[in-house]
Amino acid sequence: MAILDYGLSEMALEIRSMMREFAEARVKPVRAELDESGQFPADILRELGKMDLMGLYIPVEYGGTFEGDSMPNIIAVEELSRVCIGVSVSYAANGLGADPILIGGSEEQKKKYLPPLASGEKWAAYALTEPNAGSDAGAIRTTAVKQGDKYILNGTKQWITNGGEADIYTVFAVTDKTRGARGVSAFIVEKGTPGFSFGKKEDKLGIRASATRELIFENCEVPAENLIGREGSGFIWAMRTFDVSRPGIAAQGVGLAQGALDEAVMYAKVREQFGRPIIANQGLSWMLADMATKVETARALTYAVVRTIDSGAKDYSKFSAMCKWYASDVAMQVTTDAVQVLGGYGYMKEYPVEKMMRDAKILQIYEGTNQIQRDIIGLALNKEYAAVSRA
Amino acid sequence: MHIVVCVKQVPNTTQVRIHPETHTLVRDGVESVMNPFDENALEMALQLKESHPDTVITVLTMGPSQAEAVLREAVGRGADKVMLLSDKALAGSDTWATSYALSQAIRTMSPRPDLVLFGKQAIDGDTAQVGPSVATWLALPCITCAFGLEVADGRAKVKRSFEDGYEILEVALPCALTVVKEANVPRMASLRGKMAAKKLVIEPTTAEMIGADPANIGLLASPTRVVSILSPPARSSGVKWQGEEPADMARKLVEELRQRKLI
Q1: Cβ–Cβ of A18/B187 closer than 8 Å?
Q2: Separation CA A34–CA B69 (nearest Å)
Q3: Which of the following is catalytic: A78, A263, A354, A367?
Q4: Residues of chain A scoring pLDDT < 50
Q5: pTM for the complete prediction?
Q6: Can you tell me the distance from the alpha carbon of A87 to that of A34, in angstroms, rounded to the nearest whole number?
Q7: Model ipTM over 0.95
Q8: Are residues A197 and A271 both part of a single domain?
Q9: A40 belongs to a structural domain
């Protein structure tokens, strides 16, 4: 198959072949069952840990394999997503949970919490969203009150990916009500801490293998040394995390769309109607051509954003937002079209594309809705052009 | 503990074709892989290493220089050492000569192995002779078709499978086992393992280096000859009835069998 040359490193190419083989051998045979039962893919994550694939984003000094190139991690997410994003989100959410520690954590925190995540021995989760604070993340109500050498956490987090399954949680809570978003702080909370419990597992439209739960804090005592950075810096860690994690969502979109395109083309070549394969119909082959072009443009944009982040660029929120909304919209369009190409078969659970279409929807919603992404881009444009017009 | 795992590079099963005129395996353009049963033997060794961390696993193969690919694959999965037995003098060896050469190679290893593991058989030749033959050359007890292994106090407890059940045998180390598919699900290579495997320099070991008697190796020393290999004739698919009432289909079946004078 012809592929565009993205100048990938040897490591990135190695990861692509490893993850592709892994996803085909270990994920594809069970994805329908995991979707049906909603069972968390614990065995799959454990095996990825044994294969040294859980620490692609964690620097070498903390037990991972990251040495400045984020493409291996992005490609790992893409390849898993090609087969199942219920599995890939469970995988990628570890990075989301660890990012605030990587970005704002102290050396002691990094040394303590990152190595077990890199080896896959422990899993992580990121806890920001609350029932009344979704897009408006500054409106969270979970509180953290300092008492001596501890913080006392109270409140409820909602829809937390890997909730209940993860061992290490980065939790955002208000330490100063009077300061709004600047009064939010981030804490590392370990599973098993007294006063920290989980709500029921949510029953979802898609990504059903992933675990989504409430986190409940009732007078939960967290050691003061688990504060990430200083008090009031939590919102900054939250937003900087999204800047680096959104290309991961884009990679999920690229992989998922690629998987749907693969199914659609293969089907169109073998399905015969009116005495010829349906791909011989121009209307249908043009549909496939548009799908393939969308997948490739989404991939090109996503990779370009990742490279820009790796280059040490300072301001990339706009680009992270662009690739997130674009690739997730592409995933929704391409999976919907794939169902259309497969027709009645596509609508049936015997074929994988209906699951892909159900799964795709979340990509337009989580880690900032695609409307919020456009807000971010709009805000950046306003700022950038203000500077231009003054000049 | 020192475990030697003998592996063979074979053509991928899904692509095996036999040349219609020469009746030999067509190897051109066919991907080579580690013999699947040997993967199970290696996995058995790797799992034993997980519970006995002081274990060293040596993977041994005999074949042309490109057979080193299976050794790199084994290192990627966690094997510690490799030996590529590769020499023109060994070419054309049958199971007798091959097992002699492998046994000679194992004799040169230090320390001598506590366990020598093989796949049940290779999927190309399907003889299932090399494992037991090596054990015979080395005068080791051999248990075939193993799917379970526990090692403690210098003894191995082995589950040996049959078509309709299994038996549990206990044997003193050192011993040899041939391993079946049911033993485990072979792991995939790890990233660090693959990186280590890429850097590995594999120097072939020659017949002379293992002190092999030239009269016992290669085509001329092989007492058996492959006269010809034939593909089984393609069978046409049978008649299928479905969707009707079971009683109607049964009636049809009986009628059909009567017509063919089978009942």
Answers
A1: no
A2: 35
A3: A367
A4: none
A5: 0.90
A6: 9
A7: no
A8: no
A9: yes
